């Protein structure tokens, strides 16, 4: 069992207030194997929906106005592929932090905002979603055609 400190709850409350101030009225949380599963009525600021796992969260992403995600590559690419504004929360306690590298590059390319848990509320308050640019996935077929041409492979 995990005991949560009062500062944790204060941080969550302030972050929820920041979401509400931006006009968000509903929060859908995937908690996975997490030890904290908030009750649906625990957040009076927003309507809260909580689940552990689903076969696919594509429909949730499609309905979202903002996606807040951890910085796993698959999660980031799925969120960007949904064409929704993305805020990536980096786990800054990881060694050799590839999550930070990915989030920073996506931010440099204007595809998302990123923060850590400790800077989440400030980021929610200050981010300007209008500056984000759509993510255009790579075209592996073009690369394959280039390789075929470079290697002199004849197509049948």
TrEMBL record:
It holds the Pfam family Glyco_tran_28_C. One of its GO terms (molecular function) is N-acetylglucosaminyldiphosphodolichol N-acetylglucosaminyltransferase activity. Its EC number is 2.4.1.141. GO terms for cellular component: endoplasmic reticulum. It is an enzyme of class 2 (transferase). Residues 10-127 form the Glycosyl transferase family 28 C-terminal domain. It is found in: Endoplasmic reticulum. Its main location: endoplasmic reticulum. One of its GO terms (biological process) is dolichol-linked oligosaccharide biosynthetic process. It comes from the Eukaryota. Keywords: Endoplasmic reticulum, Glycosyltransferase, Transferase. Belongs to the glycosyltransferase 28 family. This is UDP-N-acetylglucosamine transferase subunit ALG13. It comes from Labrus bergylta. The lineage of its organism: Eukaryota, Metazoa, Chordata, Craniata, Vertebrata.
């Amino acid at each position: 069992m995990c005991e949560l400190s009062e500062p944790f709850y204060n941080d969550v409350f302030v972050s929820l207030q920041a979401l509400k101030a931006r006009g968000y009225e509903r929060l859908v949380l995937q908690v996975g194997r997490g030890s904290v599963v908030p009750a649906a009525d625990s957040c009076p600021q927003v309507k809260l929906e909580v689940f552990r796992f689903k076969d696919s969260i594509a429909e949730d992403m499609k309905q979202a106005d903002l996606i807040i995600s951890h910085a796993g590559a698959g999660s980031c690419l799925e969120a960007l592929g949904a064409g929704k504004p993305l805020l990536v929360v980096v786990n800054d306690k990881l060694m050799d932090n590839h999550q930070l590298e990915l989030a920073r590059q996506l931010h440099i390319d204007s595809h998302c905002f990123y923060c850590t848990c400790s800077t989440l509320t400030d980021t929610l308050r200050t981010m300007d979603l209008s500056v984000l640019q759509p993510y255009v996935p790579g075209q592996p077929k073009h690369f394959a055609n280039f390789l075929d041409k470079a290697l002199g492979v004849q197509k049948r």
